[in-house]
Automatic annotation (TrEMBL):
<keyword id="KW-0902">Two-component regulatory system</keyword>
<dbReference type="InterPro" id="IPR050482">
    <property type="entry name" value="Sensor_HK_TwoCompSys"/>
</dbReference>
<keyword id="KW-0472">Membrane</keyword>
<dbReference type="Pfam" id="PF02518">
    <property type="entry name" value="HATPase_c"/>
</dbReference>
<feature type="transmembrane region" description="Helical">
    <location>
        <begin position="12"/>
        <end position="32"/>
    </location>
</feature>
<keyword id="KW-0597">Phosphoprotein</keyword>
<keyword id="KW-0808">Transferase</keyword>
<feature type="transmembrane region" description="Helical">
    <location>
        <begin position="132"/>
        <end position="150"/>
    </location>
</feature>
<dbReference type="Pfam" id="PF07730">
    <property type="entry name" value="HisKA_3"/>
</dbReference>
<dbReference type="InterPro" id="IPR003594">
    <property type="entry name" value="HATPase_dom"/>
</dbReference>
<protein>
    <recommendedName>
        <fullName>histidine kinase</fullName>
        <ecNumber>2.7.13.3</ecNumber>
    </recommendedName>
</protein>
<keyword id="KW-0812">Transmembrane</keyword>
<feature type="transmembrane region" description="Helical">
    <location>
        <begin position="107"/>
        <end position="126"/>
    </location>
</feature>
<dbReference type="InterPro" id="IPR011712">
    <property type="entry name" value="Sig_transdc_His_kin_sub3_dim/P"/>
</dbReference>
<keyword id="KW-0547">Nucleotide-binding</keyword>
<keyword id="KW-0418">Kinase</keyword>
<keyword id="KW-1133">Transmembrane helix</keyword>
Length: 392
C-alpha cells in the first residue's frame, strides 16, 4: 500500500477508480424512493458524483483546487440532494489528509466546521441516519486532517533529528581530530627526549670507547645520524601541526604525575570544594607518555567537575597495579542527566572525547557516567607493566 501510494500515477488511478465507483453507486441509488430530486436532475447528480472524486488527479500539482472542488461537490451533493457516496467520502478524506501533509492546516480543517455547521443547522429537516452520517463525515474529516498534519510533523522531526545527529557527529569528529593533534604535539617533547638521548649516547660511545674497531665506529655514527634525522623530521611534522592549529611553538616541559599534587591543590582553591588525591600502591616512575596521558585525563576530569558541579567534593584515585595504572575521578555533584548529557553507553561532550582519545592512544580505555549513589565518575585503565609496588 505504501509503494502504491508513493507511485507518481497513484492520484490518477485513485481519481479514475473512485470516479467509477461513485458513478456506479449513484446510478444504483437514483431510483430510490427517498431521493430528494426528480429524473430531470439525474445528469446533474451523476456529474456531482464525478466531481466529488475525479479532481483527485489534480492533487500533485493543484492540491488546493482539487480540495475545493471535492469539498464543494460533496457539500452540494449532501445538502439539496442528500446523496453522499462512499467513494466521495474517501476522496474527501484523502484531500484533507494531503493538505495536512503539505502544511496547509487552515484549508485542511476548513471542511470540518462546514459539515458540522450543516448537521447542526439542518438538524430539524434531517433524519437520524442522515444526521449521523453528516456528523461522522465531519469527525472523519477532522481525523484525516489531523493525521496529515501529524505525519508532516513526524517527517520534519525525523529530518531535523537526522540533521542534528549529523552535526553532532561532525563536531565530535572534529573534536577528536583536534585532540589527536594536541596529543601529538605534547608527545613530541617526550619522544624527542628519548631520540636525543639515543643520539647523544651513540656519539659518546663512538668517542669514548677504547679499542673500538672502525666498523663499530661507523655503526655508532650511523645510529647518531639516524636519530638526528628522525628528530628533524619530527620537528618538521610538529611545525605543520602547529601551523594548522595556529599555535606558536613553546618550550614548556610536559607535565607528569609528580605535578598531580599541584593540580589537585589548584582545583581545590578554584572550586572551593574538597578535593583529595588518593594513591594506592608504591609510586614508581612510568613511561613519560603514560604519565602525560594520566595527568591530562585527571586535569580534564577536574575541569569538568568544576564546570558542571561547582563546589562538589572530588576524589582523585591512582592505583598502581601489575599491569598498569588505574584512575578514578569522582564527584558528588549532579549526575550526567542533570548536567544536560546522556553519557551512559556512549561518551558525550568534547572533554570526554579528548580523554577517550588519550586513553586509546596508549592502549588503554576510559569510561564515564553516573556514579553509584549519585555524582559523576571517570575511570581509566592505562597499561604500564611493572607498575605495582608494595604499600598503600
Amino acid at each position: 500500500m505504501g509503494r502504491i501510494a508513493a507511485s507518481p500515477h497513484a492520484p490518477l488511478v485513485a481519481g479514475v477508480l473512485l470516479g467509477v465507483l461513485a458513478f456506479l453507486e449513484t446510478v444504483l441509488r437514483l431510483p430510490g424512493p427517498d431521493a430528494g430530486f426528480g429524473e430531470q436532475e439525474h445528469p446533474l447528480v451523476l456529474l456531482l458524483a464525478l466531481i466529488t472524486t475525479v479532481p483527485l488527479v489534480l492533487m500533485p500539482t493543484h492540491a488546493v483546487s482539487a480540495a475545493v472542488l471535492v469539498t464543494t461537490a460533496n457539500f452540494v451533493a449532501m445538502t439539496p440532494f442528500h446523496l453522499l457516496t462512499v467513494a466521495g467520502t474517501a476522496a474527501q478524506l484523502t484531500v484533507v489528509h494531503q493538505l495536512g501533509r503539505q502544511n496547509k492546516r487552515v484549508l485542511a480543517a476548513l471542511p470540518v466546521p462546514l459539515f458540522l455547521g450543516y448537521a447542526i443547522a439542518a438538524a430539524p429537516d434531517l433524519g437520524l441516519g442522515e444526521r449521523t452520517l453528516t456528523l461522522t463525515l465531519a469527525s472523519l474529516t477532522a481525523a484525516a486532517a489531523g493525521a496529515g498534519i501529524a505525519r508532516r510533523a513526524r517527517n520534519e522531526a525525523r529530518v531535523y533529528s537526522a540533521a542534528a545527529q549529523a552535526v553532532a557527529d561532525s563536531l565530535l569528529e572534529h573534536a577528536a581530530r583536534g585532540e589527536r593533534a594536541r596529543i601529538a604535539r605534547e608527545l613530541h617533547d617526550v619522544v624527542a627526549h628519548h631520540i636525543s638521548m639515543i643520539s647523544v649516547q651513540a656519539e659518546n660511545a663512538r668517542l669514548t670507547t677504547t679499542g673500538l674497531p672502525p666498523d663499530g665506529a661507523r655503526r655508532f655514527l650511523a645510529i647518531g645520524d639516524t636519530a638526528r634525522a628522525a628528530l628533524t623530521e619530527m620537528r618538521r611534522l610538529l611545525g605543520v601541526l602547529r601551523e594548522d592549529a595556529g599555535e606558536s611553538p613553546g618550550r614548556k616541559p610536559q607535565p607528569a604525575l609528580q605535578q598531580l599534587i599541584e593540580l589537585v591543590d589548584d582545583a581545590r582553591d578554584t572550586s572551593g570544594g574538597a578535593t583529595r588525591l588518593i594513591v594506592h600502591g608504591r609510586v614508581v616512575p612510568l613511561d613519560p607518555g603514560i604519565e602525560l596521558t594520566a595527568y591530562r585525563i585527571v586535569q580534564e576530569a577536574l575541569t569538568n567537575a568544576r564546570r558542571h558541579a561547582p563546589g562538589a567534593a572530588v576524589d582523585v584515585e591512582l592505583r598502581y597495579t601489575q599491569t598498569g595504572i588505574r584512575l578514578r575521578i569522582r564527584d558528588n555533584g549532579p549526575g550526567p542527566r542533570d548536567r544536560g548529557g546522556k553519557v551512559p553507553g556512549a561518551l558525550a561532550g568534547h572533554g570526554l572525547v579528548g580523554m577517550r582519545e588519550r586513553a586509546a592512544m596508549v592502549g588503554g580505555e576510559l569510561n564515564a557516567g553516573a556514579a553509584p549513589g549519585g555524582g559523576f565518575v571517570v575511570e581509566a585503565r592505562l597499561p604500564a607493566p611493572g607498575a605495582q609496588g608494595e604499600g598503600t
